[in-house]
Amino acid sequence: MKEYTSILKGYYDSQNKVKAYDLINNNAPYNFDDRPDMRQRIEKAINTDQLLAIYPRGTRNGFEFISFEEGEKLISTPEPTVVGYRPWLIQDKPNGFIIDDLKWKFINRCVEKEKNLMMVGPSGCGKTQVVFEVGELLDRPVYYFNLGSTQDPRATLIGSTQLDVNKGTFFNASSFVRAITTPGAIILLDELSRANPEAWNILMSVLDPNLRILRLDEQPQSPTITVAPNVSFVATANTGIEYTSARVLDRALVDRFSIIEMAPLSKIELTQLLHERFPTLDAELKEIISEISERILKEAQKEDARLTNYLSTRTILEIAELLLDGFSLAESAELLIYPLFDSEGELQSERIYCRQLVQKFLKVKSTDLVFTNEDFETLDNFKNDTL
């Protein structure tokens, strides 16, 4: 096999400038504004439907034109060994991690068989954590991309053009490009439902099981990057009242995924989680935390709900940590529960209703009241003012 340092595939960008993509090193796209000699060679390669192969420095001629067929043979990757789903994984769920057995089995199966998976559910129900747990179990790297916070999808998913004193203008590939070209990687596309639609368009060909390529430009002849063997894609999408501003996902994009619904933990599951994570915490406190969480969740799920939020698993674990650190349950509620609920509406506010709900589970002491004397005075004054 011939030794080449680069195999360049040329193309014209949207401004009709000559650029090229290195098929060997996955560097793209080269800009030849400062290299007229190379630009002429690339143009010749484009016009003759060939690739420009570059020899190591010091080699006679330095380059040659080769056919696309020859180039594909030189850079072809052996077919990956298919790893079938291993049922024993269901017995290998990490300690302190609570998830339904069937869902755990399905998620592992999708990841191992390179089937795109979308986990849908409210914020804080464990969607992101489960991906990292699977990655650790399978000994595969997980690359995290929060698409909901991305302002420039093209720079995040493809890369950007930069200027260097020595190199001149060059293209700096994104971390996403490096991730999808890492064999065996698990790509976590977090908050896909909140992503810019441009990100969805870029991901279409990446997530297409028959293509699995990243297009670097919108032009038909633009170069592409092929997803490495055994790379799996897992997306998360948030649901719930707090995410009504999230965009409606493109149907064509959704069709590229298997969908699994992730729900908040039940009272029994929460209690089990707290027992495993905080074995020294008072058992009665764990039961109370789980009961409060369930009551709030049930209220939030009603058609005529008085509450529009609930306690995420993250929040519940933080409450347990505060209790271990010596905070009372009333203090923990003040810090972590009530701020989650709207205070507008005086007596009719969500926060007042939540206070009433939580107070039923507290051992009322003069120093441990959820409703303080000031609170009751406020309520009395409000009633008198409205009479």
Describe this structure in words.
With 387 residues, the protein is of the alpha/beta class. It has 3 domains: 6-75, no CATH class; 88-261, Rossmann fold, CATH 3.40.50.300; 267-386, no CATH class. It has helices at residues 36-47, 68-75, 101-112, 127-138, 153-157, 175-180, 197-207, 251-254, 267-277, 283-300, 313-324, 329-337, 350-359, 373-386, and strands spanning 6-12, 18-22, 27-31, 50-54, 63-67, 117-121, 142-146, 159-164, 168-173, 186-190, 213-215, 224-226, 232-238, 258-261. Strands 3-2-1-4-5 form a 5-stranded antiparallel beta sheet. A 5-stranded parallel beta sheet has the order 7-10-13-6-14. Helix 9 (267-277) runs antiparallel to helix 10 (283-300) and helix 11 (313-324) runs antiparallel to helix 12 (329-337). It is elongated and about 85 Å long. 29% of the residues are buried.
